[in-house]
Design a protein that fits this description.
Number of strands: 20
Shape: flat
Distance between the termini: 47 Å
Strand order of the largest sheet: 2-10-13-12-11-14
Strand content: 25-35%
Radius of gyration: 52 Å
Structural class: alpha+beta
Order of helices and strands: HEEEEEEHHHHEEEEHEEEEEEEEEE
Number of helices: 6
Length: 471
């Protein structure tokens, strides 16, 4: 009976350990996410950047401030590049050119002033520093002299002692008895003379000590004055630097604005020089049909003097793609264009391929797109997506589930397998054929139906035969 109980206990422990081991193992397994194949549309396209080259109507501009002498074109007239469209008085053009060049020279002088880097003068700081150094040196020398002499109080005490000694020697000399020997008289006289000499020396020492201490005091005051002067000079220099920096920033802003004015004026001068070469005749910079013509006798105001409608209906844009992509295209292929700089919404329109040029020496091809009606502007940037094909497929999987190696394409699936630890999820591999793909999905063929599941994500690297946990 006891053996039977022990056996049951042993089996219970084994079962508990088995479940613990299974739980621990499952916690470390890769976690995979599954999805089932779905029907989806696969769209094959070529994406790139396009630029609006014709906005349906183009402007021909002239320098502002000239009086139109004669209009050489009329509304409805067809013009080409280089055709004469407006005539100005040549003398007016030359006078304006002279004024504009003079004004441009003046702006260049102003620009030079704005961009001139003028160093802030710090000579006052350097001078104050030199003065402080000299004052400090004088103070140090005065301190050495003071240290080499007794203090004024000590010298005063020595002077008093010397005075008392003179007085005592004088009394001794005066009190010599009548008939004192010459030797005693000489000795007393010498003692008096020595006392007076000591007094003179004490007086000289006191005077020197007083002068040294006074010089030290004055030297200290000069150090304080020089230090204050240096602080002021440094403060003034700091303010001058700040002011110079503020001025420099303002000059930089003014210079930027002035450069824009200069570029604008240089363009105007270039146009005026072209008019001088053509004897005051403005030549067409666009081609098409004239839709607007300026009135003769009016002064140009910066607006177009001639407006030209494109030969073709609609606006156009150009994009550059490589030749390998271009061979997949045909005229009239659909093209999606998006524009604007919105963060959450950008308008979208549908254009078509209008023309396909021949490859250049770099194997790049210029594609012309015909844009739908809209408010397009020349030079406007577009994001273009030319659609080559689009079709619905019955078996599509996300691109993240498609893999390939030397044997071809395949997807991972998850199979349930009985083991000593129970039912486990084992990774299986299913070979497939890739039919079509786009940026999101892939259409495939293989032993896979809509009721099956494929792995679209895993927390760790997996391979055929890997044990996994299904999320």
């Amino acid at each position: 009976m006891k053996n039977t109980i022990n056996l049951f206990k042993f089996l219970a422990v084994i079962i508990v350990l088995t479940f613990v081991a299974r739980g621990t193992s499952a916690a470390t397994l890769p976690r995979v996410t599954l999805t089932s194949p779905q029907a989806a549309e696969i769209m094959v396209s070529i994406s790139g950047n396009a630029t609006v080259i014709s906005a349906g109507q183009a402007d021909i501009d002239a320098p502002e401030g000239l009086i139109v002498k004669e209009m050489l074109v009329g509304i409805g007239q067809k013009i080409s590049y280089g055709d004469p469209v407006v005539k100005f008085d040549l003398s007016d053009v030359q006078d304006m050119l002279t004024r504009e060049i003079a004004e441009l020279d003046s702006k260049y002088l102003r620009l030079e002033k704005f961009t001139r880097d003028e160093a802030t003068d710090n000579s006052s700081v350097e001078t104050a520093q030199r003065n402080l150094n000299r004052a400090q040196s004088d103070f140090n020398e005065a301190k050495i002299r003071v240290d080499s002499l007794p203090s004024v109080s000590s010298a005063s005490q020595s002077l008093q002692t010397a005075e008392a000694n003179v007085q005592q020697a004088q009394q001794a000399y005066d009190n010599l008895p009548v008939g004192a020997s010459d030797e005693d008289i000489a000795s007393a006289g010498q003692a008096l003379a020595d006392a007076k000499a000591a007094l003179a020396q004490a007086q000289e020492t006191l005077t020197a000590a007083q002068k040294a201490e006074n010089d030290l005091k004055l030297a200290g005051e000069r150090v304080e004055d020089a230090s204050a002067a240096l602080r002021k000079a440094e403060s003034d220099y700091t303010r001058a630097l700040q002011q110079a920096n503020d001025t420099s920033r303002q000059n930089s802003i003014d210079a930027s604005v002035l450069r824009l004015d200069i570029a604008k004026q240089e363009s105007k001068i270039a146009n005026l020089k072209t008019l001088v070469v053509t004897d005051g005749i403005l030549l067409a910079t666009e081609e098409g049909i004239v839709s607007f013509a300026f009135d003769a006798g009016r002064k140009t105001d910066g607006s177009a003097v001639v407006k030209v409608m494109d030969y073709y209906a609609g606006s156009k844009a150009e994009m550059i793609i490589n030749a390998n992509d271009a061979i997949k295209l045909s005229v009239r292929d659909e093209c999606r264009v998006t524009y604007g700089s919105g963060m959450y919404y950008r308008p979208e329109s549908t254009a078509v391929v209008f023309a396909i040029a021949s490859p250049d020496d770099r194997d790049m091809v210029k594609i012309t797109l015909l844009l739908p009606d809209g408010e397009w502007t020349r030079g406007q940037a577009l994001d273009a997506q030319i659609i080559i094909s689009r079709a619905n497929y019955g078996t599509c999987v996300p691109l993240s589930s498609l893999h390939s190696d030397s044997n071809g394409y395949f997807v991972y699936t998850v199979l349930e397998k009985s083991t000593v630890l129970g039912i486990e999820n084992i990774v299986g591999r299913i070979p497939v054929n890739l039919i079509a793909r786009d940026d999101t999905n892939a259409a495939i063929e293989g032993p896979l139906g809509r009721g099956d599941y494929v792995v679209i994500g895993s927390s760790k690297n997996i391979a055929e035969g890997s044990r996994v946990r299904v999320e």
